[in-house]
Amino acid sequence: MPRIDTFLRIAADQRASDVHFHAGKIPAIRHLGDIVRLPYRRLGAHDTRAFLDEILTPAQKEQLEREQQIDFMYEVDGLARFRACVYEQSDGPGAVFRVVPDRVPSVDEIRVPHSVQQLVTASNGLVLVTGPTGSGKSTTVAALIDRVNRMQERHVLTIEDPIEYVHKSQRSVITQREVGRDASTFASALRSALREAPDVLLVGEVRDYDTVKMLLGAAEAGVLVIATLHTGSAAKAVDRLVGACPGDVQDQVRITLSLTLRGVVAQRLCKLATRNGRVAAMEVLLPSHAVAHLVRENKLHQIDAYLRSGEQLASGTRSLEHALAELVLSGEVEEREALLHANDPAVLKEIVAKGAVP
């Protein structure tokens, strides 16, 4: 058994989200969002490389030497799968292993709001799931794909780098393609996506203008596109998408986006007051005439005010502050924890002080 499996087993047993394994540092896990060092010595560069060499294939070692970094999935039989990122850093090699459970969670288990669940019933359009690194985006997306798989007869195509959650076809036909293994590049996989006749297309991350152009084209062509971004709010996700495009096409992108956007989910993971887990607080932006106008007219800075007004709560649209306030008022999350994640702490305090979400 590779020696690094011992550290990975500790992470899985402790329900940690990550293992940090770096030359020059003591191995650590991330538990409930906090870094916790393990009872082990500081790693030297030679020892770290020897640990990692035990799990890398010859091809992966060659790629690491050539590119100075590599992403891949690593599985410990009977335990879990891990999304691994191995790279060179100032003190020598380093690696981060993210725990990916063997079983795909359901939308009910991770408490995805009904309005978000309904997003994947759309026949076409664009759904964005956003949040900082480690906010649970991959888990939410996997649960949404699982809902499609259990309830609809559709062809779901995923393009990932690497594949995290593995889906087995149920009512839907699931095709998962991993960049570097099943497609030479992310761009080539995207270019061939429409020829593979998907009803639902999952793209692991929006990276550049070419990706935006292809995703919007697919959404217009009748495909439901689900994509992830690294931003802190729904408004910033839309802004990032438009900002990835050259200036001379941004007006047209905004018009297309105003017509094809089906929803944006921006989430944060909060520690439960019981300290026995975390729960996702989800900001939800659903389409409306007002949202379409703000996107089309380049008034994206007004989206936050629109969300925080609370006028659309009955429809399922809600700000991150409303989502956090619900968790605080129910006693599930402490107010001081919620304030760490709020985009506008003053607004959150105001809602909590009223004693109820409007």
UniProtKB/TrEMBL annotation:
Question: Tell me, what is one Gene Ontology molecular-function annotation carried by this entry?
Answer: ATP binding
Quote the Gene3D superfamilies the UniProt record gives: 3.30.450.90, P-loop containing nucleotide triphosphate hydrolases
Instruction: List the InterPro entries hit by this protein, alphabetically.
Output: AAA+_ATPase, P-loop_NTPase, PilT/PilU, T2SS/T4SS_dom, T4SS_GSP_E_ATPase
Return the protein name.
Answer: Twitching motility protein PilT
Residue ranges of the Bacterial type II secretion system protein E domain? 194-208
Task: List the PANTHER family hit by this protein, alphabetically.
Answer: TWITCHING MOTILITY PROTEIN PILT (PTHR30486)
Organism of provenance: Sandaracinus amylolyticus
Q: Which family does it belong to?
A: Belongs to the GSP E family.
Query: Which lineage do the record's taxonomy fields give for this organism?
Result: Bacteria, Pseudomonadati, Myxococcota, Polyangia, Polyangiales
Cross-referenced SUPFAM superfamilies: P-loop containing nucleoside triphosphate hydrolases
